Amino acid sequence: MADTDEMIHEDALPGHESRLEPKPEWQPRYPGSGRLAGKVAIVTGADSGIGRAVAALYAREGADIAIVYLLEDDDAAETKRIVESEGRKAITIRGDIGEKRFSETVVAKTIEAFGRIDILVNNAGEQHPDKDIRDITEEQLRRTFQTNIFGMFFLVQAARPHLKTGAAIVNCTSVTMYQGSKELLDYSSTKGAITAFTRSLSENLVGEGIRVNAVAPGPIWTPLNPCGGATPEKLETFGESTPMGRPGQPNEVAPAFLFLACEDSSYMSGQVLHPNGGTIVNG
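The structure corresponding to this sequence follows.
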């Protein structure tokens, strides 16, 4: 496998949060209450966007965090600083979750550092807008599926021996799975796969006392959109089509990930939460 610095992306993905203006709001909105005290969480895509907000909120609630990211060392270092500022421990693990061996490395390094895994947050993803299906290259199609759904399989496979009764898996799907997206054909297809994976994995693991749920964000202001090929014109009106008339912020999504990871949701598995600005999806 080539070094991740040498990997060719069709867009500027996944993008630096440190260069994004205005900055996404990741800060937890309320004091912690110990809902994840003593827990260890792996969070993919935790260097920026929703992943950073989840890592920050989990840390405030008492969890130590394995920060998994692809390329952005500066963003990952900032997330680590944020976690440590909450009095928790953090490690950063750099690489491509679409490679099975790297996913195994993520789990091995987390166990080496913390001795356990209680929560797995499969958040990392990529998107590449195309107006015509004929413009989607075979490389792009394979790459999007490799990151967005293969990586989830690989990480769950690697983590499974360490997930005990009471553990939680939280996957990130998308409103595009429910509504469709005419310019995100491959991306929305992976999100449909993630929702089916969530429901099926829940059925597979619920008897072991391991809960599996998902979050389906709407348009959230993260590096994924401006760095994922969106035009300046689209960015000017990003999120305005939602009933709330605006994009969401990462710290408006992170509480859904917290709820599904802690005992507040102890009677929920195979479900999807929808922080999407009021869009009704009936799913």
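Strands lie at 40-44, 64-69, 90-94, 119-122, 168-172, 211-215, 272-273.
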